[in-house]
Amino acid sequence: MTLKWWAVVVAVVSVTSCVTGNVVVGVLNGGELPLVVNLFTLTTAGTAVVLAVTAELHDRLNDRVSALTEFLVARLNEIEAHTGDRNTGFVEGYLLSHGPEAAVVPFGRRGRGAAER
What we know:
Elements: H1 3-29, H2 35-97, H3 112-116
């Protein structure tokens, strides 16, 4: 079970014990449980409800971030695929515009090695 469902169970058990305790004491004595016991059970139930809501919001946010991440990865892959095609076309067009007699300049070392040639 997840944190959210444990918090829901704790809240339900706490409220049930508070109500049951008050009903039993009310039927037997005509009174109610001490204020400290009622406040403790209601505080526990309230805290558990807040924790359950926070856990649910965290799960939803996590799902949205995951979906956004998947979308961005797919979009970046698509952009990368198109960019590679465009650059290839540009290079081929550049080479074709200079004709077959275009000089090929090899990559060489720069610095002292280039000056000594």
